[in-house]
Design goal:
168 residues, mainly alpha, 2 domains, 7 helices, 0% strand, flat
Length: 168
């Protein structure tokens, strides 16, 4: 069997991320251009559901290179800790997005920040899957704790958002 160098594996993971992000750009641009051609068609709930399904598809595609990355760095505590810190940062974007959506200019207008915050909140199912999988695959305590904190922040934000929506 031919051994593949660590550097080649890292380049492969980076190429996977670039490919997924390139595909995401093409798909989102196509969706935007379709909306610009016929805005009346894209004003209802079906368009919103299509946007959400596109988002979930793209986040699911991002989980594939992330799985490769996790398997690549799994045996290195330092690398996995840095990865866990990045995941904690991503987890902190959930409550930040909810907080920003409470600002009327952000939450009640159609601007890029409001759209980003809304899509970040709607990405809950896939980010939860990614965080849970990364936590299960973690071999070391510190990274596992960081990822678990991120997962709890994500779940707490989702539960809090649902509670606020139901009460108001």
């Amino acid at each position: 069997m031919i051994a593949i160098s660590r550097r080649a594996k890292i380049i492969f993971v980076m190429a996977c991320y670039v490919g997924v992000l390139g595909l995401a750009c093409v798909m989102v641009a196509g969706r935007y251009l379709a909306e610009q051609r016929d805005p009346a068609t894209f004003s209802g709930g079906m368009a919103a559901a299509g946007d959400w399904m596109l988002e979930l598809f793209l986040v699911a595609l991002l989980l594939i290179p992330t799985l490769f990355l996790v398997l690549l760095i799994r045996n290195s505590e330092t690398a996995y800790t840095k990865f866990a810190q990045v995941l904690l940062g991503i987890g902190l974007t959930a409550p930040a997005s909810v907080g920003l959506m409470c600002i009327p200019y952000v939450g009640q207008t159609n601007n890029w920040l409001g759209s980003f915050c809304l899509y970040r909140i709607f990405a809950f199912p896939m980010t939860t899957v990614g965080l849970a999988g990364s936590c299960v695959l973690a071999k070391f305590k510190r990274p596992r704790r960081l990822i678990l904190c991120s997962l709890l922040i994500e779940i707490g934000t989702f539960v809090g958002t649902i509670a606020l929506t139901m009460s108001g």
